[in-house]
Amino acid sequence: MIRKCLFPVGGYGTRFLPATKALPKEMLPIVNKPLVQYGVEESIESGLYEIGFVTGRGKRAIADHFDISYELEHQISGSDKEKYLTSIRHVMHEGVFSFTRQKEMKGLGHAILAGETLIGTEPFGVVLADDLCIPEADGDNVMAQMVKVFKQFRCSIVAVMEVPEDEIHKYGVIEGEEMKDGLYRVKSMVEKPKKEDAPSNLAVIGRYILTPDIFDILRDTPPGKNDEIQLTDALMTQAQDGVVMAYRFKGTRFDCGSVEGFVEATNFCFEELYKKGNLT
After folding, report:
1. How many CB atoms lie within 10 A of CB 126?
2. What is the DSSP annotation of 7-63?
3. What is the pLDDT of residues 50-86, one digit of tens each?
């Protein structure tokens, strides 16, 4: 019913310069695993095993990461270092990967529209690798939670979380009618409002499930804030013409698009691995 997930990974990662001058920001490691691999693992665990990447110039390392490195495999074959490839081998075995390029950086909506060739006419997930989401103990990951909601409502869904007023200007924000605890029917959405203009404190984070009509809507969506094609604007059109749900997910989210959030996520994941004895 839903098996595809799109990863827009064409951005420049300017907040991490000079580290990202030659290295994709999505390949920066959280402890010993690239940020993008966490998102791909979340997708595959949710049953979305067809992974599409919308890339840009200088992003070849992402494709290489999800491919076999024959020289490396040969060099460490039979050694105790081979165990470090277990997680990526699992991902490569379970996932099917495809790639297309976003020729210009014109916003998230434009990136998703560029991925239409990889998606076709099916509903699909979207993961923004900058947002590292850690599920509750023994709980489903965020995308798996959203897949369950999609199976019930069969409409576009955005993941939301409560944020402080002084951070509301960093996010797209929803106004919604709460249908039950943690689930809202979206009435309106505002991209990065001032705190006095924000309709709520429920901010959209980098997890979506979208129905395929979003592509036609994006084609007709004029450039918005920062002269970019905003996914928020297209979702607002979809909400007015039909239904868009917002889901307040269970788990912890780290903003790894910022240096502070990246360091916080690294510290958290290091402590978790240490407690489980998975660091050697």
Report:
1. 27
2. EE-----GGGTTTTTTS-GGGSEETTEEHHHHHHHHHHHTT--EEEEEE-TT-HHHH
3. 999 999 888 999 999 999 888 888 888 888 888 888 8
Does the reported pTM lie above 0.70? Answer: yes
- Would you call 189 helix, strand, or coil by DSSP? strand
29 prior amide bond cis, ω within 30? no
Angle, helices 142-153 vs 35-45, to 10°: value is 40
* Range(s) of the domain holding residue 154: 4-276
Tell me whether residue 144 is exposed, middle or buried, using C-beta atoms within 10 angstroms of its C-beta: 0 to 12, 13 to 18, 19 or more. Answer: middle
Q: What is the CATH number of the domain that holds 49?
A: 3.90.550.10
**146-195: pLDDT as tens digits:** 999 999 999 999 999 999 988 898 888 888 888 888 999 999 888 888 88
Q: How many domains does the chain have?
A: 1
CA separation for the pair 196, 191 (Å, rounded): 13
| Cα–Cα distance, 157 to 187 (Å, whole number) | 13
> If we measure between CA atoms, which residue out of 129, 121, 2 comes closest to residue 54?
129
Report which secondary-structure segment, H or E, holds 180.
strand 172-180
Residue type, 150: F
CA dist 7 → 31, 46, 100, 102, 277 (Å)? 21, 15, 11, 12, 31
